Amino acid sequence: MSLIDTLESDAKSALDSLKTDFAVFESWLSQNPIGAQIVAEFKAAAAELNTVAVTDLENAVKQVGIAVLKSTAAGSGSGAAITVGIDAARAAFTTLGRAISEKTIATLATTVVNGVNTIKTA
Q: Can you say whether the dihedral through the CA atoms of 92, 94, 95, 97 is positive or negative?
């Protein structure tokens, strides 16, 4: 077996393993009350955000990101950065005239903070 054949075989095995793992996760999501809640909340947030034009959503995320980065640069912890991000998201969507739920706004801000924290630790 050549090196290329070995690499292709290893890649196929890895892909098959990922497909299996994803199938197990999908099964858990569909059969577990917490999983069902996660899926329902994701769908609700996606539906809300899909009502916003892409460029408006990008601008809102940029505003949240800037606020979070300023907060983080000032030495604030994640909790404070999330609060600042929520305020920035709320202001951005209010300016757009969009009634986005607090849960979706909090999820958006938390996601941005998690992204910033991931970059900081990389």
A: positive
**CA 58 to centroid of chain Cα atoms:** 14
What pLDDT, in 10s, does the model give residues 73-122?
A: 999 899 999 999 999 999 999 999 988 999 999 989 998 998 888 887 76
Give the tokens for residue 83: 């609060």
Determine the straight-line distance between the first and last CA of the chain, rounded to whole angstroms. Answer: 37
DSSP 8-state assignment for residue 114:
H
- How many other C-beta atoms are found inside a 10 Å radius of the C-beta of residue 30? 10
Distance CA 104, CA 81 (A): 16
Q: Write out pLDDT tens, residues 20-50.
A: 887 888 888 888 888 888 888 888 888 888 8
DSSP for 52-70? S-HHHHHHHHHHHHHHHHH
Q: Tell me which residue of 42, 35, 109, 102 sits closest to 79, measured CA to CA.
A: 109
